Automatic annotation (TrEMBL):
Its main location: membrane. InterPro entries: PTS_IIC_man. It comes from Liquorilactobacillus mali KCTC 3596 = DSM 20444. This is LevC protein. The keyword Phosphoprotein does not apply. The keyword Electron transport does not apply. GO terms for cellular component: plasma membrane. It is a multi-pass membrane protein. The lineage of its organism: Bacteria, Bacillati, Bacillota, Bacilli, Lactobacillales. Residues 242-261 are annotated as: Disordered. It is found in: Cell membrane.
Amino acid sequence: MAGQAVGNYTIGRPLVGGLICGLILGDLQLGIACGVAMQLVYIALVTPGGTVSADVRAISYIGIPLAMVAIASQGLNPLGGSAANLAKSVGTLVGTVGTVLYYAVATMNLVWQSFGWKDVHNGKLNKLTAVNFGWPWISHAIFSFLPTMFLTYYGATAVTALRNALPMDGVAMKTLFTVGGMLPCVGIAILLRQIIGRTTDFIPFLVGFTLAASLGLNLVSVTVVSLLFAVIMYEVEMSKGGKQGNSTVPEGPNDDDEEDI
């Protein structure tokens, strides 16, 4: 509900979630230790175009409390390796459930988007605020807040029961993941509309995918290569602007003007 920058990429991260859960449960050291253990696993997790392999918000606010209770009940050292491994295992279990909840929220938000498109076509642009900041709260309340509250309250048995009730090869899960699998296409299409102005713009856009597929480069390596292309394109554009700014109309044909041309 706090948006992407504050909500998803700050409060929703395990490191911050561990701090908050530690304050709530009265064991700050254990909360931060669980948050650090889970953050190391999902430190490079991004959601390009809506593609989610694990929901770190569920890991932060379902996995960390359950891990804290499990570690405390077994009397493990919060800073020990056994506690960290237990926290990672619980986080992995909950991350799968969180993915289901994430796609459920995204699917329900499509209903609110349809309302927004109708308002755009009818010229009621003042109602778009409710589509962006109002109606999605219902989706989060149903598929984020309530499941988090119940799963945290009833413990790990509720997480296991949910996974058993909704097997990955079941119709409900296949339908949900099929719909959710199409959402990244929408995200990539929106990205393309922002950066593609002509057909040749697809070439630098596909370079990163080509490098990742053919050379096995990770996200950091591809980013470094993209910075090289960005610097080259920047220098080219700046040189064009400098030539246009310094160009003057010649008074008459002479050798110097022909050399400059």
